[in-house]
Amino acid sequence: LFDDPDAFYRLFGWSVLLFDRNYTRSGATCMDFNTILAETQVQVSYHLNQRPTSIPNLYQLWATSLQAQALAPTKASAHMRTYVVAWAGGVTVRAYPSQQADVVATMEEGDHLDTVLQAGVWLKLRDVPGGQGGGWVLSKLDQVMLVDPTQAV
Hints:
Layout: H1 7-26, H2 33-48, H3 55-71, E1 78-85, E2 91-94, E3 103-107, E4 112-119, E5 122-125, E6 136-138, E7 144-146
Antiparallel strand pairs: 1-4, 1-7, 2-3, 4-5, 5-6
Protein name: SH3b domain-containing protein
């Protein structure tokens, strides 16, 4: 992949196309630049982890994934849901969707998490109490549970 002398420029151009596609398709006015950028980072990492052998091969992997999404639509990136922390140990809120990211907060059992985006197994929070903007939590089913909107108070 990186044998191509223009690899950096072509990867940059591709990531801008991916960002633009995510932004124009988000359809949610509450999506901010950082949220769309984080979603794009997750997608770029996913495609690079497929180990493409060349830039054209990377483009083909992306085209194949877009075609698969068109044939069998996945859940939308916009993910306006409320979860409740179910694990007694609470959950860690990270600055971006990675276990290596800085911890920005912790949420305790019973706390509600309002989300705006799902990126793989990560949930983007709308707000973190006492913090600037949202953060990211790993959505392990034993730690957070979706709140049934018909049961919400």
